[in-house]
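Section: protein folds

Sequence with per-residue tokens
===
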Amino acid sequence: MSKKILVTGGMGYIGSHTVVELQKSGYRAVILDNLSNSQPGILELITRITGVKPEFVNLDMTNQQGLNAFFHNHPDIKGVIHFAAYKAVGESVEKPLMYYHNNLGSLVNLLACMQEHPAASHLVFSSSCTVYGQPENLPVDEQAPVVPAISPYGNTKQISEEIIEDTCRSNALLTAISLRYFNPIGAHESGLLGELPLGVPNNLVPYITQTAIGKRNKLTIFGNDYNTPDGTCIRDYIHVSDLARAHVVAMERMLKKDNKKAHEVFNLGTGTGYSVLEAVQSFERSAGVKLNWGFSARRPGDVEKVWADTQFANEELGWKAEKGLDEMMSTAWSWEVNLNEGLMG
């Protein structure tokens, strides 16, 4: 019997791609999502890609009673991949209590349920390279200091890792892996699944594709006076399917008891930094579309440059990102074109 894995926030961007990779690898995925930042039509798209319809439960994880009931009804869950969280940096600055309540409350409730139901004793946590701030040394490895967060969103990732660390230390049965992502972009190679922000996108690539398709008038690049070769910020862009695959590898590591510590941390990136201008040029090249773009002042809180040292993930986790920037952009464009043609109804 294939193992059942719970994916919280599994209807979201990275979550839905991870469900696809889990099902491709022979696992049974169960999705928990309250649809606050996703759409119910994603379930059908996952089914079209994999040929398997995952079980879906609409539940807000801050509802502890509801979450307890869910675990009681699913005693055969073997592990949890936890994505469910609010994720907009700017919104977190405006509404910090909402972010602390949702992101930390849902994790605390989840860990409490996992302690009550020890069959589900393995957790993969969706963390972020925001925990490093602007690192002194590049590329940044897992030993780099975690610095004070510049947003409540980033702080919830730091505090969540601390909560997981403390809980694993107190509970001999629980194991966890925190995956610190760099910048996930792109879409599934089928063109059926991708990033679907509600409202105005906060991230670069959806803004690029929406500008190219005509939904947005102009792409604004924040700042051209950074200490970088072309003056724009540098990021480590990673394809979402490569990222999703890493979650399956991390879960398998714990199921096979290959983990070296109760709570491990891995960076997920390509190890290559690209500037915002290079990303725009890559899109124009791979999509064959010229973008209307211009510069404006720096955006408060933006890190100047960051990219990953991926050696630990490559060697210890046995995972490596495979897709290059042009392929990431090409898949993102295919998804945007399909959306424009009515993919989601």
In short: The radius of gyration is 19 Å. The mean pLDDT is 96.
